[in-house]
Amino acid sequence: MKYLIALCLVVSAFAQAPKPCDSPPQWEAREIRQDYSRKFEEFRKLSYDETNRRVREVEEILLGSDKEYIDRLYLYNEAKNYSLNLKTKVCTVTALTRPFRHRGVFPDAKFDGIFNIGAVGVSGEVVAVQAFSANGTDGFYTGLVTYPSCYPVQNLFFSKASGFEHSDYFDLNIGIVDLNVFIPPQECIKAEEEMNKKKIMPVV
After folding, report:
1. Span 79-99, mean pLDDT?
2. Cis? peptide before 202, omega within 30° of 0
3. Residue 203 DSSP symbol
4. What pTM value is reported for the model?
C-alpha cells in the first residue's frame, strides 16, 4: 500500500509539471550580454525573428577601457553573417555555421520552477517567472520567462566552443516595428557584391 501511495505521488508530480510555454516568435528589446569566458560586456539593441530564423544586433562592446560599435545581421536560413563596424564603416560577410539559438524557452525544455522577482506584497513591484533548462544542439541552456505570458527575461548559455554567456532583456516589445531591419546595410551589400565579382566565398 505504501508503494502504491508513493507511486501515485510521483505520477501526480509529473502530471503537474508545466510544459514549456511558447515565447513570442518575433520581438525587439534591449539586451545586456556578458561573456565571462572572454571577459567582455555588450549592450545591444536586439531584433529577434524566430519564425524566419534571423537576428539583428546593434552592439556597444566594452572590452576593458575600449569600446567598439558593431551592427550584426544573422540570416540563418541563408547561412550568412553580416558584420558592420560603425566606426570604420567596414563590413565583413562570413558564413554562418553555428545553429540557430532560441531565446525564451527552448523546444523540449525542462521546467525547473516558478518564483517571484521583486518586492513581494508591493503592488506593481513584482513579476512571476518560470525557469526552464535544456541541452541544445551546441550547449546547455537555462532561462527565465515571465508567467503566464512567457516573455524572455534572462538566458544563460554554456558550451565548450563559446564558454559561458549571460543575457538579460529589458524594454521588450512584441513584434518587429520595421522588417527592413533584416535587410543588410548598404556597406554590406557593396562588400558582398565585390566578393561575388572576385568569386570570393564567405569566410567560414
Report:
1. 94
2. no
3. B
4. 0.84
Strands ordered across the beta sheet of 40-49: 91-95, 80-85, 66-75, 54-63, 40-49, 26-35, 163-174, 152-159, 140-146, 126-135, 110-118
Among all chains, which residue has been given the C-alpha cell 525587439?
28
Model pLDDT for residues 96-124, shown as the tens digit of each residue: 988 898 898 988 899 999 999 988 888 88
Highest mean pLDDT among 8-17, 34-43, 74-83, 119-128: 74-83
> What are phi and psi for residue 38, nearest 5 degrees?
-100, 0
Q: What is the 3-state secondary structure (H, E, C) of 48-105?
A: EECCCCEEEEEEEEEECCEEEEEEEEEECCCCEEEEEECCCCCEEEEECCCCCCCCCC
Cα separation, 56 vs 184, whole angstroms: 9
